[in-house]
Amino acid sequence: MAAPKRSNHGGTGSHAGVTALSFTTKLPAQANFKKVLLERYQEAIARSRKFGHRVSFRVEVDPAADAQTITPVEEQPIASDDEFPVEETGKPGAELEAALAAARERGRKRVAEIVAGEDMLGAEAFAKLLGTSRVTVNAWRQSGQVLGIDGAKRGFRFPVWQLDKHGRPFGAFPALHATLGNSAWAVYRFLVSRHGALDGRTGLHALQQGDDALVLAAAEGMTRGDFD
Question: What is the mean pLDDT of residues 135-144?
């Protein structure tokens, strides 16, 4: 009897850490197929012992195609924690702790300076400027229609410069808040910072010049990590 021939269906594939080696044989005599299967079994034992991982078989019989397929499946070992040890760093040293504490204190002072600025209004004063109520202003803040930053002890503060030439909040604010993660401080920093995508203008200056689309595109680029 002729030995089973490898067909063009044979190949190598891999998925989810498993390597599969297969070959297809035309339906041979029963004895011949058993012989091939036994040979593959012996090869599997040898490979398992040599490489130290499990090997199994999948046998598919397709009468319509007049073929049988034997697929050895080699299960690649998963790396254990011991192979990639994680160094225990422990607590930060005294010098690093001091540096972190100093940075936090600088941050608190900077926030206090910002919310105490002359261009910052409380909810009551901002509502009066807009000709509406404090309740409405807070509702607009929550929906991102106006910018209100948390001043802790001072409560929410509203930059007076967030109004357009008609005395209304910039129309791009809701989309800008959504793009920047609904973070009032992120929106504030974006508006007061210069951006290369805006030709060196601040976000606020670009809004004042009516370039809403460019402002939103610059904000989206910043969230993607684009170079500015």
Answer: 95
Rounded distance between C-alpha atoms, residue 161 and residue 100, angstroms: 33
User: Which residue, 122, 219, 208, is CA-closest to 171?
Assistant: 208
3-state helix, strand, coil in the chain (%, to 5): 50, 20, 30
Q: What is the mean pLDDT of the chain?
A: 76
Q: Measured between alpha carbons, how far is 114 from 111 in angstroms, rounded to an integer?
A: 5
The pTM assigned to this predicted structure is 0.54
Residue 38 structure tokens: 């036994």
Name the nearest CA neighbour of 170 among 134, 202, 125, 199: 202
Question: What band does 148 get if pLDDT is binned at 50, 70 and 90?
Answer: very high
Higher pLDDT: 194 or 24? It is 194
**Which residues share a beta bridge with 169?**
163
**Rounded Cα–Cα distance for residues 33 and 40 (Å):** 11
How many angstroms separate the CA atoms of 61 and 131, rounded?
81
Reply yes or no on whether the pLDDT at 45 is more than 80. no
Which pair of structure tokens corresponds to residue 58?
């999948």
User: Radius of gyration (Cα) for the chain, nearest Å?
Assistant: 34
What is the side-by-side strand order in the sheet with 149-150? Answer: 120-121, 156-159, 149-150
Instruction: Work out the number of other CB atoms within 10 angstroms of the CB of residue 156.
Output: 21
